[in-house]
């Protein structure tokens, strides 16, 4: 049996797991920690947790897979940039990791890794094309087209959260206005509350909370309809921290998708909740190590 | 030398050409005619013009390639639907053509055919990935990714004109509001004038016409930025009837692209005018016949 370390480093969480080639998570640790201004500091935290989780298996690893919250250029082994962290510029991930670990290291955007996870062990095992959407701090996108990830010409694909759906709309931290993620991610949650609270309140019948999720779901549907019209992809998986509110989102989203997707594509769109929850990117990054064809 | 007939049937034009395998247009005819409610009537017009252009070469053709203004399902040999023509439903193109012609017949969406034309003999010969945009009655999109057309799971890819860029915006004929093509295609041209007139007026310094193209270009740029953020594609070719106004559009479009494309992808975006003008889809559909790998 071969083993990999999978890492899922999101905007506000860090998860590390030891995974075998059947996709079993043998050991898993999570920390509430996001990237810091100093990328080296962040990688020190990652590396510490890797060593902790790997334990005595460290020397026998098939490799380490990293799902990272930034724009990853795999040809050059660097993270081009990280949202909201201007100090991260062309961070040499592979070089830094090679200095610390002797096993192979692969990396990719966390939404891409989540897509690979869902394909391997999750909701989309039988689909040759789908789009993974991670609703978290923002909206990440993983485009899986014709049995492989489509990463764009230089790794920039999947920044779906910055698709403008409302010209001159809400101000986004990226500097632009009307970005999708200002309406259908944590960016849409009012200050002073959380997605969990709003979900609980909607469960209990609060009209305000229900109204919030309805609008959130409508915008989610609008963006999905846009993605479908552009790419002709019919299967969408919803993951990320806010996926827990899927039951509140699904009907409002479907209703807008039905109306906004062009022609007969509308009736073909399928929305799936993540089957792996917080483990999607962990499994995907392990898969990248254990199956080098990815 | 092998010869093909290429057909470009758009919303308001029909063009047919005899093309050799080097990409020379040996004979070309054009008619101002669009699809009619009765699809059979439209194909009779197409077939008449094919016979006229092919002449004595008809019996020696390598095949006929059709660029058609609808959603094409190549596996089933049908047009699923045509914008604004509800009477067109699963039209059996291939079956109909086989009844009339003995040579092989291939078909695809006109924007896809234009993309193949630009790749073969036009603006994008050296690029492995690009998006073709045809600005005409609406906005057609051809996604050329990693050296091949991406048609979606069932041929629905590329309906980029129906991407919503302004929720609750202008009413589109598709039934939705705020579709991109209501702002950056003939759909944005005020009644009583034409793109040619507005172009001429802008050339002559008219502030109203200049303002019109500035806004048009801004919206063009907004949609391109969205496409870039989603797909990570960096090269865009602008064709179609309105491509003649490229010089008026380019700067306003670039300025919005610079601002709305996420992160460092912004500096990588390249906008190219069509190198083939009205011949792009004719050449692409001929290429489909003469090079069966497409």
Summing up helix and strand content along with how strands pair, one would put the structural category of chain A as alpha/beta
| Uncertain regions spanning at least 5 consecutive residues of chain A | none
From the alpha-carbon coordinates, what is the Rg of chain A to the nearest angstrom?
Answer: 19 Å
Largest interface comes to: A-B, 51 and 51 residues
CATH class of the largest domain in chain A: Alpha Beta
CATH topology of the largest domain in chain A: Nucleotidyltransferase, domain 5
What integer is the average pLDDT of chain A? 95
Strand order of the largest sheet of chain A: 3-2-1-4-8
**What general outline of chain A do the C-alpha atoms trace?**
globular
Oligomer: homodimer
User: What's the CATH superfamily of the largest domain in chain A, by name?
Assistant: ATPase, nucleotide binding domain
Count of helix runs of chain A = 7
Number of domains of chain A: 2
Number of strands of chain A: 13
Strand content of chain A: 15-25%
**Biggest sheet architecture of chain A:** 5 strands, mixed
From the 3D coordinates, which CATH architecture of the largest domain in chain A would you assign? 2-Layer Sandwich
Structure characterization notes:
The structure is a homodimer of 294-residue chains. The first copy, chain A, has 294 residues and is an alpha/beta fold. The first copy, chain A, has seven helices and 13 strands. Chain A has helices at 39-54, 93-100, 110-121, 195-203, 207-231, 246-260, 280-290, and strands spanning 3-9, 14-20, 25-31, 63-68, 71-73, 78-82, 85-91, 105-109, 130-135, 139-145, 148-149, 235-239, 270-273. In chain A, strands 3-2-1-4-8 form a five-stranded mixed β-sheet. In chain A, β12 (235-239), α6 and β13 (270-273) form a beta-alpha-beta unit. At the A-B interface, β10 and α5 of A face β10 and α5 of B.
